[in-house]
Design brief:
With 60 residues, the chain is of the alpha+beta class. The chain is 12% helix and 27% strand. The chain contains one helix and two strands. The protein has one helix at residues 52-58; strands spanning 19-27, 33-39. It has a two-stranded antiparallel ribbon. Bound molecules: zinc ion. InterPro entries: HSP_DnaJ_Cys-rich_dom_sf.
Length: 60
Amino acid sequence: MPQHARNTRVCRDCDGFATVAITTGARHADGTRATLRVACPTCKGTGHTAPASVLAHVGR
Ligand SMILES: [Zn+2]
């Protein structure tokens, strides 16, 4: 059976999409959409969970 390695430590809050662009509906003068870039508070925009040293304590 295939091994399902979960060593990637992708942030489970944002699933790796740490920075999300939110369309505000407003537009800039040049016609482009004005977006807000919001970084995931859990991983602080890195897309990964806490360092391995912290994860070791969580363990099982
Ligand atoms: Zn995240």
